[in-house]
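Take a look at the protein record below and tell me what you see:
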Amino acid sequence: MNFVALKMLIGDRAKYIGIIVGITFASLLITQQLAIFTGIMTRTFGAITDLGQPDVWVMDPKVQFIDDVKPLQDTELYRVRGVEGVDWAVPLYKGLLKARLSNGNFQTCNVFGLDDATLIGGPPEMVEGRVEDLRRADSVIVDEYAAVGKLAGPPREPGGKPEPLRVGATIELNDHRAIVVGICRVQRTFQSQPVVYTTYSRATTFAPRERKLLSFVLVGAKAGVEPEELCARIQAATGLAAQTREGFKWTTAMYFLKYTGIPINFGIAVLLGFLVGTAIAGQTFYNFTLDNLKQFGALKAMGAGNATLLRMILLQALLVGMIGYGLGVGVAATFGILSRNSELAFRLPWQILAVTATAVTVICMLSALISIRKVITLEPAIVFKG
């Protein structure tokens, strides 16, 4: 009977392809929009991910997310170092500074100032140069996307491609000379701004003069001390906010989820894909069932029970669901691969594949339910009519 069910489904090519197209479209739209949404949310805390060494981030209690910098007094660093359970604590400067390029244009950059002695918080991967080169005079490290993009120099020939920023090139940061000593690979920021690393003392020299310049204190926990426990100790001893790395990621993501329209916009797109897929697949599958009522009636007349017919319909729905899911996810993954070097945020973890599979299963089950009722109430005598 399974062979008969598949023969009936594939025999009607137009409706067979129509059902698959509907499910493919739904699978593609759901997967793509969820992957872009995840990519965007990942970028909001990309800087926290790149700074993987600290166990705890210490900040002003009013800080709401990673880019919401509220500077601290430099003396807070020593207070944090005195808390029991702290193995090490180093300063971090994070700010937006204007870079003047060789062609005279200005570009706002995300500047990180690392502890001069340890360089903790440096870029996770170097493409050219070494992190230790930051100890040279006036040195900075820039990210590879900025080096070939927003920080690139003018083309050598009119109409040509911009000249990539290379090691040894010079830029100006807030009217201060900076020499590029390395190119790094980091996650792109939410605003896709160039990322620049330098030392803490040099960053505070580049930055406009303010009374407080310490953005965050990065803390490492001693062996045997849980980061959550250390956060509680730091908060009790200093009155500052302290969060684990994962906790600070979640805080940053929740800020964007709560105060921006990102979830609503992508949620509408995902819901639209689900509804359109259900409508196309359900209607086409129902029409397919109507066209094959005589065949189902003949099977009933030959003794096939409702359970057998139900199994046949579910098998047909399962087949088109698997094909449509595979095609949709495949197209979405291909789209992500082709756009990985562009500004588009795209991240496809396995959880998204599971969500899409669940959605496609629901679409197929709804489509099958529409048809099942018609088949169950079918009278075998329909075979002898007309």
About this structure: The chain has a mean pLDDT of 85. Strands lie at 56-59, 86-100, 106-114, 125-128, 139-143, 170-173, 176-185, 195-199, 216-221, 241-244.
